[in-house]
Amino acid sequence: MLTLAQLRQQRRRRSPPSLKQQYQEFVMQRVEGFKNSMSREELLRLGDEAVSEMQATIEGQFTLTEVLMVDQVDRLIIKRLRLRSYARWREQYLTLRAAQREPMHWGVDPGSPVSRILPRLEPGDSALVFGTGAEPTTYLLAAHDVTVTFVAGNIGTVERVESRMASESLGSQFQAYVVQVGGDISSFVPPVQLVVVDASELTPLEPDARRAVIEQMQRFTEPGGVHAVLPTRGLAPHALRTLYAGWEEEAERPGGGKGRREGLLFSLPVGRNDTE
Predict the structure, then answer these.
(1) C-alpha span between 258 and 276 (Å, rounded)
(2) Sheet of 147-152: strands edge to edge?
(3) Are 170 and 218 contacting, i.e. CB atoms less than 8 angstroms apart?
(4) I want to staple 17 with a disulfide (CB 3.0 to 4.6 A). Which of 21, 35, 187, 251 is the partner?
(5) CA distance to 53, 131, 205, 219, 260, per residue, from 263 (Å)
(6) Rounded CA separation 5/247 (Å)
(7) Of 180, 147, 150, 144, which Cα lies nearest the Cα of 162?
């Protein structure tokens, strides 16, 4: 993630994955999704079909191996799915991704803290998205080539997000987990540059429990990282600010969102320990 100074200087450090690479990821997602939808018996029959098609070709040339079998099965699935060629996929992908990178495409307010941070994101950045109300930002961040870990306490929400990420071709670098508010997430959340917090999830908690939830997410945040706290009527901004002592609150976008509750944006200064 870029700092504000780097953004002003346009000092980009990373490039997005090549379109060829993204096309291969698209194909493999569809192939794996097809395999997961098949029963064991159907997979075995498909394997037998792959062997039959390969025997005439490989006889006397090289040995049939498991790797060759898997490759042939994948080719059969690609043929059955009638997946788009690279040229057609590229044309449709560029149009779709341009739309997906607009906050309003997902119903995210252009004045929200997540929208304000988008220009600073780089491909390969990682984010933790916490809470059901933050669901739309999950798709928006993934469209900007951010690796997203989504955490919610409702299994229906998690399954819906997983399904939509796949259908929107956004799921190549995405994980989702069902964890109740206040549960331990240290076993699967990597260090992240961005945390998006649905503050409404914190409203029912006692102050000490609320602080414990935020402090856990702060421990995963790398120096220079940012927390985007989405607005809620349940907690006054001051109650949220007290949870970020030692962090720097970033001002609202100049001229934007006047008179509106747009949430809060906090950054962890470089060189500071997150628990200091």
Answers:
(1) 33
(2) 174-178, 147-152, 126-130, 192-198, 221-230, 264-267, 248-249
(3) no
(4) 21
(5) 59, 15, 19, 21, 9
(6) 17
(7) 150
**144 token code pair:** 């900007």
Pick from 166, 183, 263: nearest CA to 175: 166
Residue with tokens 């060189």: 271
Point out the residues of the chain with pLDDT beneath 50.
254-259, 273-276
Pick the closest to residue 151 from 129, 136, 125 (CA basis). 129
Using DSSP, state whether 150 is helix, strand or coil. strand
The SS3 assignment for 206 reads: coil
Q: To which residue do tokens 């988008």 refer?
A: 118
What is the residue extent of each domain of the chain? Answer: 1-100, 104-267
Res 195: pLDDT: 97
Cβ distance 166 to 189 under 8 Å? Answer: no
Helix (H, G, I), strand (E, B) or coil at 261: coil
Cβ(233)–Cβ(263) under 8 Å?
A: no
Tokens for 113, please give them.
């803290």
Tracing tokens 């079909």 back to the chain, one arrives at: 49
State the pLDDT at residue 131.
Answer: 93
What is the three-class DSSP state of 238?
Answer: helix
Residues near 157 by beta carbon (within 8 Å), at least 6 away in sequence: 132, 135
Contact between residue 121 and residue 128 where contact means Cβ atoms under 8 Å apart: no
| Nearest-angstrom CA–CA distance, 56 and 41 | 24
Helix count (H) and strand count (E) of the chain? Answer: 10, 7
Contact partners, residue 3, CB within 8 Å, separation at least 6: 120, 224, 270
Q: What is the C-alpha separation between 26 and 30, in angstroms, rounded?
A: 6
Query: How do residues 205-238 score in pLDDT, each as one tens digit?
Result: 999 999 999 999 999 999 989 999 998 888 888 8
